[in-house]
Amino acid sequence: MECAGKVVLVTGAQQGIGRATAVEFAAAGADIAINWLDDQEAAEHVAAEVRDRGRRAILVKTDVAPIDVLINNAGVFPRVPFLEMTESDWDYVLDVNLKGSCFCAQLVAKAMFLAGRSGVIINLTSGAAFRSSPRGVHYVASKGGVLSMTRAMALELAPYRIRVNAIAPGLTDTAQPRYGSTEAELAETARATPFGRMARPEEIARAAVFLASQDAGFVTGQTLHVNGGSYLG
């Protein structure tokens, strides 16, 4: 699946799904703008992986003028029991996961519109928006908001030939689920899926490459579940 000549901005690209997505798009022929939060060395390693695949890579935070595809991947999930959750806990998660995704998408969509170009926005939601998650009321609310926001954005941006879709990963083998679960707990949860394992970051990334490609050129306002059949049981 080719994305030759495209410029893709991946937020939260220094690790996990973001890193895998940047590398997969590079393998598909895209140049990558790598957004990072707090680990420049890790981001530089991702840039090196992109360049090893013969593509250009830069580290950016604000330059969205040439962007063809936005991957809204940046997110946080600090586990907090609901009865102990504070307003600041809520604000932090909603600001990053929902507000941040909204206004990053708005900025990119404006640039696409002003340049007279079509484009693609892919928002990362979560299976937790459908099945919930312990100690995650704020996180589940934010990811449910991303789902609704994706549909609304898709409707508003369709006249400008900007497609907007979401990906809902299931349990994925990254650092994020390890902040709140032991390896034994993760293994038990993984065994409960029909495929009997966690998703690999590259599997989420390949779904993003598909949604950004012309093979999905008439797909907008949809959520693609990548969860090993977690909802079948």
Q: What tags apply to this protein structure?
A:
233 residues, seven-stranded parallel beta sheet, alpha/beta, 7 helices
Please give a structural write-up.
The chain has helices spanning 16-27, 40-52, 87-114, 128-131, 137-157, 183-191, 201-212, and strands at residues 7-10, 31-34, 57-59, 69-72, 119-124, 162-169, 223-226. The protein is an alpha/beta fold. A seven-stranded parallel β-sheet has the order 3-2-1-4-5-6-7, with helices on both faces. Strand 1 (7-10), helix 1 and strand 2 form a beta-alpha-beta unit. Helix 1 (16-27) packs parallel to helix 2 (40-52), helix 1 (16-27) crosses helix 7 and helix 3 (87-114) packs parallel to helix 5. It is globular and about 50 Å long. The two termini are 32 Å apart. The mean pLDDT is 92.
Please write out the topology.
Blueprint: E1 7-10, H1 16-27, E2 31-34, H2 40-52, E3 57-59, E4 69-72, H3 87-114, E5 119-124, H4 128-131, H5 137-157, E6 162-169, H6 183-191, H7 201-212, E7 223-226
Parallel strand pairs: 1-2, 1-4, 2-3, 4-5, 5-6, 6-7
Helix pairs in contact: 1-2, 1-7, 3-5
The geometry reads as: globular
Helix/strand order = EHEHEEHEHHEHHE
How many distinct beta strands?
7
Termini gap = 32 Å
Mean pLDDT over the full residue set: 92
Could you tell me the radius of gyration in angstroms? 17 Å
Question: Any low-confidence stretches, pLDDT <50, length ≥5?
Answer: none
Largest sheet: 7 strands, parallel
Helix content: 40-55%
Strand line-up of the largest beta sheet: 3-2-1-4-5-6-7
Strand content: 5-15%
Number of helices: 7
SS class? alpha/beta
